[in-house]
Every structure is written in structure tokens, then in C-alpha cells.
Amino acid sequence: MSDSAITPTFKNEYSIKMNEFFMEKNKDDNELKDYELFFEFYDYSCSNFSYWDDGVNAYHEFERKMITARNNKYDMIIVDDRILFNDIALIETHFIEDDFWILKPSLELFTDYAEYIEKNKLNYHDSSILKDGSYENHIYVNDIVKNINDITWKDVLTSLREEDPPYPLTIALGDDDDLINLLMEYASNFYNLSKDYDKNFFNLFYNETGTEFFDSFFNFVMTFSEDNVENSLYLYQDDAFLTFLDGESSFLKAKASHHKVLTTTDDNISATLPPKYTSAITEKYLLINNKSEIKPDILSKIAYQLTSKEMQLFRAKEFGRVPTFDLSQKDSDEDIKSYCQMEPKLCLFIENMKRLNIKELFKSKYSPSYFEIGYMLPQNLRDFIEYNDIQSTIKIFKNIKELTSTGLGAYAVLSYIITAITGIFGYYVMYLVYKYRNHPYIKVVSPWFNMIILFGINMSIFKLVFRLPPYAILKARFFLLYSTLNFNFIYIPMFAITYRIFRIYNSKSVISKSLSNKRLSIVIAVLILIISIYRSIISFTDNMYYMGHGCIENDRFPMYEYVEYDNDHLAYEYYMYAIFMVLNLFISATGKKARKFGSSSYTFIVFFLNIHDYVSEEIILYLDAKHFGITFLFTAIYNCLVCILCIYLLVGCRILYVKLNPNLKVNNQMDLKEFVGLELTKMGISSAKNRLKRLSSIVSYNRRVSKQSTLNNSSNPSNPSTVVVSNSYSQNSSKP
Q1: Domain named G-protein coupled receptors family 3 profile: which ranges (predicted)?
Q2: Does domain 410-675 bear CATH number 1.20.1070?
Q3: Which of 60, 75, 135, 155 gives 56 a disulfide partner, CB atoms 3.0 to 4.6 angstroms apart?
Q4: What is the pLDDT of residue 304?
Q5: Is the pLDDT of residue 144 over 50?
Q6: d(CA 394, CA 135)
Q7: pTM listed for this prediction
Q8: 136-278 has which CATH code?
């Protein structure tokens, strides 16, 4: 309820008297004596905006005007805690950035003046309510409700209805904050909404008690609205005040700061705390605009004066404002003692009140910033009350606390197990490549580079499960670096291998020693190192955060982002495209012979991995929470199969060939071109049968040749120089 509804001249009187007090106080201060105070008031009302029709509500509109007010129009702004820091959360909301082109207005637009003021000068403030805090929900009644500290909202309504005649009752819920306040106060009458008591108390809104609770709240609202919910849902506090004065309602829900003017208006009006003495509170904050032309140290000095004990006592006397004093100091602090002597009943209320910090109640590890809640929840609550749509409201409360990826249970465990088994297989293939690294069929495709590629593919195997909780900023930083290494370990060594094959096919004769290209290895290492250092700097210096994909009305999944995300990804994509294009140029330059080598399979690997990354990301982003678990499990299986296919196309076929031919012997001086071609890269049942037949023939032939060679050596021991040697490769020979 606006103060001007009670006192029409309030705005003008407040501005004049505050400025007069400030000028008198600073008339001898050389720094402040030339400054004056001017106040403008924002008329904040909520339900006159329709989120569904206009895409905005008053909460959204106030945020927009607060952000635009930074253009030097105001030097300071007073907002409540549901506005200040409503953009801070581990999982950010995309609405602020999309609508206002700024990520965190609370941090980016206003000056932190803590450095200008000594903390010990503020110890007279209540530690939980600072900078002009106000206690929102006091009830002003006509002395009809007794023992309200022992009864619930439901009991209050029942007692009023049992009177003869029944007392009329009107509660204004046109203000979005009032609607949320009433809901949480009603819940606090039946459940302990304390994280100290139960850190998972918020689950009551969507577990098995959710339906029962919202059904009870629905019946409560319908009863005091006399089955016409629009009488309350779209009733503003100003109108409720007039209804109360006219006797059409037996009590009025208003601010404690209205206590003085209301109780002096009518002797029959008395004040009490809400049922169970539980009241939602609002904390007021005085913000300094960092675009102001006035120096921050001057503004900080003014801000300190505006929140000083002297100024708060002045506002309490003149306007009935409730100061932010720590009442536990009332026996030792004369100023606090004098206030309690002036307003003993309010001090008693403040000391006995059980405070509900609404923003804190909705805050959890993975909850969105409060802006999204204040923006979307009130309209949903109105729809729930108008149409009795309980399930939609339960879903929203669940989405406030949980993400689609939380609570997967057995599906997450199975995904980890399958991923781990596939990863072990991938590392086993790496071991086999190392084991057979000197076999010509492995040696020709650069086993050391292949092991790096295999390591990169193994990183792809595990990358999907890294999308699962827990989430933390450090994990997001690590994941960015992990993804960078993942792609570079695959693409850059692949580029080196295709370059080496290109050299083989464009040389008249290439023997194994010429493949020991240390310069190429150094270039590859330097490239990976440069990109890794660049991304490491981005990861650990930029402002990293999670952005929620979706919203509380559907489902949310966190994706990491950072301030330079767009520019960095654009540059990084160009870099990866360049690697891919050069890779394909070498494959094309090799011509049809590339098919024999299977270098064209690199194109498939790159294609599969890129398409796979895109498909996997789209799946986890757009699936609803109901089917997320089973679908994520199948996505993990699909991820593992794609990576296994890439391993096979890369080197698995050659490992299989070598293992199927353990007795295959070759001449070390033969041209390595003979070993580039490998038909095992062709897939299909019929071709597989033909390969097995050929392999059997090769094995039989090698055995005959080996046996004949042994006989020849035995019959001519004195002339070894005439023998054609077919030495098998040595697994333990030195690196080429």
C-alpha cells in the first residue's frame, strides 16, 4: 500500500522535511553544505500488468526502469531486497540478459561503498535488516482476533466466520509480493520453513504433501473471497485500505510503517502480528548509481547520514518509519532506548516476530535468481487460484529447486558404469597401439599421434557425464578447458597423420626412418600448448557462470557461459574450421589412394563427432524432466557407440588385423606404401567373410615360407648372405 493512499500529501512532505533536516545537519560541512535532497516515488503495482499478454509484469517493468535510471537521472536509488541481488545465483536466468542486455545489474550498475564507511559504524543496525528495513505484514484489526500467536491463517478465517453476524474479510493480493507473502506465511503456519531445521523443507511444495497443501490454500482463498477470487487477486492495497476504513473488511494487512497513522486515525483500530507471529519481511537498500557525476566518497557520506541513527529517529517521529535498530542493544544504546519508549508496541512486535525472508526461502543451490521467480511465479499463482490448476504450480515449485539433471538416481549410476566400461576399452585400445607400435601396419599411421587422438576420443566418452551434477563455477572452468583439449587432441594429431600419409604417397620411396618427423611433432605440441594456454586464461580469468536453459515454467538445464563467450567461440570456431579444411585438403590431395589408407575415415570421424556433439546437446537441453533420466541413459549409450565407431575407423581395424595375424612377417626394408592400404576399413558382412578367407591364406602362406626358410638356413649355414630374410617386427624395438 502506498503511503500517499493514507496521507495524500505524503510524497511532498517527505521530500521537503528530509531535505530540511539534511541541510540543517550539514550547514557547517564544507563538503555537503551545497547539496540538496530531492525524492521521487515510483508507483509500484503488479496485477495491472499481464505477463501472458505483454510478456512483462510490474516486477519486470520496475527492473527495466531501475536499470535505465542509471543515466545520471538519479544519484541514489532505494530498493528492497527482492530487487537488489535478484540477479545473483549459481544458475543464472536468461531473462535479464535477454531483456536488458546486462547480466548482473546489482553488481554492474551500483557502487559498493563499503570501502568508504567503517563497518564498526554500522553496528547499531539489526544484522538481518539493514538500510531502512521495513516489516511488511502487520495486521490492523478491530480487536476481534485473540491469541493470534497460537493460531493459523485458517483459524483466523474460521473464527471470523463463526461470529454472528460473520465479520467481513478482504485480503488484497493484487500486489505480486503480497500474494507470495501470504502463500509462504500460510505454509509457515503448518510447516517449519527453516533450513536449520530441515535443509530440504522446500520439497514439501512438490512432494507428496504438495497437493494437500495447495488444495488447502486454494480453499482458504476461495473462502475469504466468497468464491469470487477476483475480489482478492486483483484488489490493490490502496483499495483494501478504503474498504477497511469503510468497515467492509474486518482487518487490513499493511506495513508496520503504517502503524502510527492508522492507529491515530481510529481509536478502535489495533495492530497485531500475523498468525503464529510469522511475518514476511522486506529489507530496504540504499544504492549509489555508479554513473552519477557526484564523487563516490561524497555519495557514500550522504548515504551514511541517510541511514544514521539520527536520521532514522527523525523518520520514525515524522513519518512512522521503522528503524533498522538492533533491539538487543536497547539497554545500552540511548537512541534505541528512546525509540522503544516512543513506540513500545512496535518494539515488542519486532522482538517477538518470526521473520520470513522470502527471497531466502526460495534460494537453494540450483535455484534460479529471484528475478525469474518474482517475474513468473505470481501470474502462475493467480492462474492456479482462478482455475484450481494445482499440478502446474507443483511443477513450477519443483523447477525452482531442481534441474532436469538432478535426481536421476539409477539412470545416472548406469550412465556412469557404461561410460566407465567404454572408457576402459578405449584405454585398452591405446595400450594395444603402443604394444604394436612397431608393426608396419600400425607404424605407417603414426602410432604416437594415434594414441593422442585416442586419448581425445576417450575424453569425448566422458564428456557427456560431466554434464551431470554437481555443478560449481570451478567445474565450469575446468569443463571449458577439458572441451578445448578434447577437440585439439583429436583434430591436430589427425592433421599430422594425414600430412604424413600425404608425404608417403608423394614420395618415390619412403622407408620407416623418414617417418620420424620431430619437427612435425614439435609443431603439433606447440599448437596444442598455445590453444590450451589461451583457453586456460579464458577459463580462470573471465567471469564464468551457468545459464539456465529453459525456465521454471518448463524445465531448466545449466549450460556454462562466460562474458567473452560469443567472441571467443566465434574465433575458436574459425580456428577449428581451418583445421578441418586443411585436413580435408590433404585427404583430397592424396586422391583415390586415400581410400586404401582409410584417411577418408578421418572425415567421417570429424563428421560423426561434430554431429554427435550437436545432437547430444540438443537432446539434454530440450527434454522434459519426466523422461530425462531414461533418455540420458540412452544418450550415454549412443555416445559410447559413436566413440567406439570412431576408434574402429581410426585404428581399431588395424589392431584387429594385427591380432588376427600374429605370425605375419614382413621385410623391414620394404616400401611402407605397401602397408598403407588396409581393406579392413570396408564394412559389411560379405567383405568381412572375404577378409577372413584372405587372412587365412596369408597365415598359411607365411607358415610355409617360414618353414622353407628354416630348412634353407639349416642346409646352408656357411652362406647366410644369400638368404632372403623375412624378419618379424620386434615389439620391443626402439621408437622410429
Answers
A1: 413-648
A2: yes
A3: 60
A4: 86
A5: no
A6: 28
A7: 0.81
A8: 3.40.190.10
